[in-house]
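User: For a benchmark we're assembling, each entry needs the component sequences followed by a predicted structure for the full assembly. Here are entry 17's components. Please fill in the structure.
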Amino acid sequence: MAEFSTKHREDGEVNIIELNGYLDAHTAQHLEHAISDLITKNKYKVVVNFEQLKYISSAGLGVFMAFIETMRTNAGDIKLAAMQPSVYNIFDLLGFPLLYEIFPTETEAVNKFKL
Amino acid sequence: MNKTAKNIFEMKVKSSTENLGAIREFVEEKATQSGIDKSITDKIVLAVDEACTNIIKHAYNYDESTEFTIRVLISKKEFKVLLIDHGKSFDPNQIADPDMPTYLKQRRVGGLGLHLMRHLMDNVEYLNLEGNVNQLILTKKIA
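Assistant: Structure for entry 17:
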């Protein structure tokens, strides 16, 4: 029920967070902790891999809103990658592609930081 | 299914976000059993999640000693979900949809649940009944 987990990897100075499961008002806190943890380590370049994320509600979207400014003011960003169409549709419905770069693959998102 | 009879299903849960998964499963199961397309089912499930999250957060302020009811009514033409609580009432008609470019520019957080419900469903109706009964009715046309 409402299962959700994250995994963290590094590719050079880019931090990759893999999401798995269901991101809702119950599990959003878990993702908040994962991103806060990066900030405490002064890591601001983040790629979120959505490939294994099955579901997102507005509480999940709120996590990205809460941290985007911190990342960008510290020469970083939160780039989003590999969303399933059902998840992308929610981001798109709310106009989030205006604010966030969303890539078809994790590699493309990571490479954007290396340009 | 009888053409005129309504199928009614009900679930009562404690007001806790840990129940959101079970609520989604309940609604998804009823929609799927009614032969509703997955893309429509996904919209209904998300709208109900947003509505229940608002009840837990705003109507009951995360008080887990409280409960609310999810009632699904299925007719030939409509899939309706009623959310019934006894918490703090609100009038969604007083809440305008946010202008999303401004919302994003201002880096706002939260306040998108009702906006999503209105986008995902065909009708969102709220009733504040006697005896402090709040009833939110989410309707999706299925025929």
